[in-house]
Design a protein that fits this description.
This protein is an alpha/beta fold and 286 residues long. It is built from twelve helices and six strands. The protein has a six-stranded mixed beta sheet with strand order 3-2-1-4-5-6, with helices on both faces. The protein is globular.
Length: 286
């Protein structure tokens, strides 16, 4: 029986969440460099490791804001503010600490962390059961028999763990329909519009009836006049939004399972944790 349990961490999702949850925390190193987000990130990471008890852990990161999606649509994520000044120095800091824990940092310029996560989740699911740790609902499109997506909820150690059944029960969709939904409704946080005037309720109803955007388009005449008119007016954006929403699962990256073996913090982690005044966190991990 295959007992590998592989935890793939969405590094940016954890780090941003940690920063805003800990922004009142003035934790700093001796030279004044802030470490509050790193501290929170490690709390989240160790909570998840204690909860899911993985045999392997890896962490994926965005590598700059330019990706194949911004080439396709200039407005993609253009609404996002710059990272807060106190967070910027913690981007490289957190990767040092992740590496000191023996966890590979994975990312590739031109692709988002989501794409790296999707690629590796698919590949590694042949070798074990994959859990994706994130706060990003887009990841639900990755759910399969052997890939579960753990969405972090309010409060530490609180997750909604999606498998195929729970996705159907909770959202009323199958994994590929997450992409179709975004094509229809767009995504305000990623700043692409979908079809103007179509919200989640209408999109869900259409998908439950016609299964996919292609199914909807081949039944346009069966739709109400107003929905048909909205779709026809925004056909190009509908197709573009669906493409932007789809996670690319063929990113040219490598990450061998052996490099991700997790056995808890080893000796090399201790000096790094001391240097960054984070030693107290090591007792959180079993």
């Amino acid at each position: 029986m295959n007992e590998n349990k592989i935890l793939i961490v969405d590094g940016m999702a954890l780090l941003f969440r940690a920063f805003f949850a800990q922004s009142y925390d003035a934790r700093r190193m001796a030279d004044g460099t802030p470490t509050n987000a790193v501290y929170g990130f490690l709390q989240y990471l160790f909570d998840a490791v204690n909860r899911f008890e993985p045999t392997h852990v890896l962490c994926c990161w965005d590598m700059g804001s330019k990706t194949f999606r911004t080439d396709m649509y200039a407005g993609y994520k253009a609404n996002r503010p710059d990272a807060p000044d106190d967070l910027v120095p913690q981007f490289s800091l957190v990767k040092d600490i992740v590496a000191a824990l023996g966890i590979p940092n994975v990312g590739l310029e031109g692709y988002e962390a989501d794409d790296c996560i999707g690629t590796l989740a698919n590949r590694l699911s042949e070798l074990g059961h994959v859990y994706v740790l994130t706060g990003d609902q887009d990841m639900l499109q990755l759910v399969s028999e052997r890939i579960h997506v753990a969405i972090m909820k309010k409060g530490r150690g609180n997750y909604a763990v999606y498998d195929l059944d729970f996705l159907q029960t909770d959202k009323g969709v199958r994994p590929f329909q997450i992409i179709e939904m975004k094509g229809l409704t767009g995504d305000t946080s990623d700043n692409y519009p979908g079809v103007k005037g179509i919200g989640e309720k209408t999109a869900l109803k259409l998908l439950q009836e016609y299964e996919s955007i292609d199914g909807i388009l081949s039944n346009l005449d069966a739709l109400s006049k107003s929905v048909k008119a909205k779709i026809e007016a925004d056909l190009e954006m509908l197709h573009l939004s669906r493409t932007l929403a789809r996670i690319n699962v063929e990113v040219p990256i490598e990450c061998e399972l052996e490099t991700c073996t997790w056995s808890g913090p080893q000796d090399p982690a201790h000096p790094v944790f001391e240097q960054y005044r984070l030693t107290s966190l090591l007792k959180l991990i079993g």
